[in-house]
Structure formats: C-alpha cells, structure tokens
Amino acid sequence: MPSRFIGHSEQREQLARRFQSKKLGQTLLFQGPTSIGKKLLALDLAQKDLCEKNNSCGSCQPCCLYLETNLIDAPPPNLLFIAPEGKAGQIKVESLRSVQDLEGGIFEWLGTSLGPDLHKWVIIDDAHQLNTTSANMLLKLLEEPPSHVYFILITHRPEAMLPTIKSRCERVIISPLDSSEVQQIALSHGWVKGEIPPMLSLAEGTCRYLDLERYERALLQVDTWLKLLEGKGDLRDIDQLLTQKKEDEATASNQWLRDTLELLLRIINDLNRIRYHAEPSLLFYSERLRIISEREIPLREIEDKALEALRHVDRNPSANMILQELAFLLT
Ligand SMILES: [Zn+2]
Q: Measured between alpha carbons, how far is 65 from 104 in angstroms, rounded to an integer?
C-alpha cells in the first residue's frame, strides 16, 4: 500500500513526458521489489491519459473513476487490470478470455477503440504468475500490439517470467523507496512514530509490512529463526510457525514459504556482514545478531539448504519438512 503521492516523483514525470511526446514503448515491464508502488506508477499513466487535464488531477470525472472503482470488477473505460486469483495465485487464461463478459475476451476489448487519440491500457500485476497458456496467449498480443494499446506488465520476480515475454517488453526498473518515504507513508496510514523503526529495518524500502498481519507474521518468523540460532528454540517453534501458515489464508502457501526462507537468508547474510565488520541490514536486531555471530553455526550449509528450498518453492514442497530440516541444522 504505497502512496500515490510519495516517492518515484522523477520517474513518474519522466514516464508521463515520454508518453506525451509519443516516445514511450507500447509494451513495458515494470520491475522492482514488491510493494514499492509499481502498480501505482502504471495506473497513474493510464489515469493521466484519461484525465481531462492529463495530469491525474484527482477531481475530474475520469479521475474519480480511477479513485473510486474496484479496478478489476468495474474498471475505468480505458483500463484492463489483470491480477492473479485464488490461493494458487495464478493468472489463468480464463482471466484473459472472460474480460468484461465479452465473447472474444481481451481480443474483443482491445479491438474496439474509444475514439481518435484515445488509448487503452492493459496492466498485468504480478505478471510472473501468468501460467503457460495465458502467457502464450498474451505473447500473441505483445508481438503486434494494436496502435492504440499500451501494455504494462508488473513483476518483482522477472526471473520467473518467460524469456519470450520479457524480450517483447521495454524494461523499466523501479527502485525501492527511501526509508524516509516509507516512514511518511506509514505515518499517513496511522502508524505511531515509535513503532516504525523495527518495521523499517525489515522493509528495505518497501511498504510490504504496512499490512499489520503481514508485519506480525514477519516478526514471528524473524524471532523464530533468531531463537533457533541462539540455541534457545526447538521444533515446537517450527510447529508454531506452521500454525501461522495454516491461518494465513490470504497468502498462497508457496509464497508464505518463500517469505520465510527469504527472511532466514537475510539473517544469514547479516551474520556474514557482521563477520566482515559491516552493519547488518536488520539494524533493529543488531544486538541479537552480534551475539549469534559469535557462535559456531554452519552458516554455509544453512544457506545452501535454504537457497535450494527456495529454488523449488514453486513446486509446492512440504513446508513442514523443509523447516524441520533447517531447524535441525540451526540448533
Ligand atoms: Zn483528472
């Protein structure tokens, strides 16, 4: 939940300028870490295009369509917004086929024009979640996009996308936000200043932990890994983590495992940094990390195991088995 108005101001203006001077590619890939405002930057372009003042003023009627509607079920007329659905978190071919109940789906929607000098925008969030059939269908469109259409694919995992799709797109790299920007956004979401520092050290310039449930899950995950590394934890702590996974209905189960493993890898990375006298990235946990770094722990082995598990995470492996094996190495 980044903010529309905080962060990326230069890039936002630059994209708008390129669009207005007709120098913006028709097929773009916005890539960068999760929860930094990539989707907002993409939507801003489409909103500007429809806005009566061409600056996403926020008050004209077309702008209101952007601000008030559910973008998937009731999108503004120039926008087709596609995102993964369900616990499996895939973008299925039905999403492209059933666009706005049109018989010809996305092809029919793109085939009609809103009028001279008006454009249509297809924004695909988490484009790495396109399954093979939908990716192939999209590929046909990206090969020769109609002249009035812009495609913006968004991803934080470009490595998981089909190379044929990526090669059709112009890449736009979006960087993380500054800590001060994340702090500003947190304050605007009602966070109390004193509670922000631990969140900032976990967030690495993203807004992923502004969601309180997600934040609390991450805190428990970090705490569990640290406890095990401190020699104070046991398999019951892993059981507790797995309870969290079961209760988390919003996150696809492999995504939960990915998040957990990535946090463990960050901790390992921080322990290595401390060994080389650098500051850990999880600044808030510096003290605990420093004490752990003095213990004899097979960091290399743990890292290899976690990386291997991460490589196979899309095949929905048993989280239970992976976490237990890691806990065994850690203790
Ligand atoms: Zn407007």
A: 25
Whole-structure pTM value: 0.86
Q: DSSP letter for 90, please.
A: B
Cα-based distances in Å from 213 to 220, 239, 242, 250, 319 = 11, 19, 15, 10, 20
In the chain, which ranges are continuous DSSP H helix? Answer: 9-20, 38-50, 61-68, 93-97, 105-111, 132-143, 163-166, 179-188, 196-203, 212-229, 235-247, 253-275, 286-293, 299-311, 319-330
Q: Cα(47) to centroid of ligand 1, in Å?
A: 7
d(CA 5, ligand 1 centre) in Å: 15
From the CA of 46, how far away is ligand 1's center (Å)? Answer: 11
How far away, in angstroms, is 61 Cα from ligand 1 center? 7
Q: Domain 9-173 in CATH: superfamily?
A: P-loop containing nucleotide triphosphate hydrolases (3.40.50.300)
- For the chain, which residues make up each domain, given as ranges? 9-173, 211-330
Residue 88, pLDDT > 70, answer: no
Distance CA 125, CA 111 (A): 22
**pLDDT > 90? residue 203:** yes
Query: What tokens appear for 20 in the block?
Result: 């207005």
- Between the CA of 125 and the centroid of ligand 1 the distance, in Å, is 23
Residue 139 to residues 52, 89, 289: CA-CA distances in angstroms?
A: 32, 20, 47
Q: Give CA–CA dist 293/272, Å, rounded.
A: 8
Q: What is the pLDDT of residues 103-112, one digit of tens each?
A: 888 888 998 8
